[in-house]
Amino acid sequence: MAFVGVISFVVVLAGCTSQVAKYNPKESVGKQVDYTITGIDAGAGEMATTQKALKVYGLEQHKWQLQASSTAAMTSTLDKKYKKKQPIVVTGWQPHWMFTKYKLKFLKDPKNVYGSSENIMTIARKGLKKDKPEAYQMLSRFKWTPKQMSSVMIKVNNGMAPEKAAKQWIKANKKQVDSWTKGIKHVKNVPFKMTYVAWDSEIASNNVVAQVLKSLGYKVTIQAMEMQPMWASVATNAADAMVSAWLPNTAKTYYEDYKSKIDVVGTNLKGAKVGLAVPTYMTTVNSIEDLK
Ligand code: PBE
Q: Which residues line ligand 1 (CB under 6 A)?
């Protein structure tokens, strides 16, 4: 008897938590997700943009909040919810394997808080062009597509070491990679330091660029840190370059702060995107306005 009592108690508790229920198109989405957007590292540009979106769309007054964690924690929560068709709202971006592995949609952003499209820019420290012209030249030629970046990310997500995934991609895209290094003089063990944030997209790009610079004779280190120190490291000459500047919107505040102290080398990827995303089974949620 006592045993049965415990079981029914547990069942009643589970029934009280909206989190365990499948997405219900007839119930308010806010209620179903405890008015919480599942975010990533607090320093990410997208987190600041999302705070702004909560204000602009009047969601703050409606109890909505943004939960900071990490890319890994966000994608693991998304995975669990997705498998059970439960509701979730995440800070998404593309290129990212989450859009390959799951059926997700960006929420429409009629007030254009996230901007329509982003480019990823390569930024060097001032003086790099003069000090390490070979590396600078290669960096100025480094360009790839969202699809190519995704293909490296997917391998890493499937468990391959980032360095190995980068090497495989380089091998499979020899012609393109050759065009980045063609005619550039090789150096001998010249140190080269890049800084990045360990977002999945940037793990992919930094490992590819590191391998290519190594092939030119550089002794490359890639160091992961938060977003503010990444920008500061290049602005203060502590790092040589970074390939992780999402602009014009996501990294705008850092760009504005540091633009006089950095060298904008060029665009390495066009057509990236940032915004709130939900699984497509959340049929009644299509715009940020629908979260109210
Ligand atoms: N991201 C990925 C970054 C830029 C790259 C969208 C998570 C951000 O600053 O939000």
A: 40, 44-46, 93, 199, 201, 227, 246, 250, 274
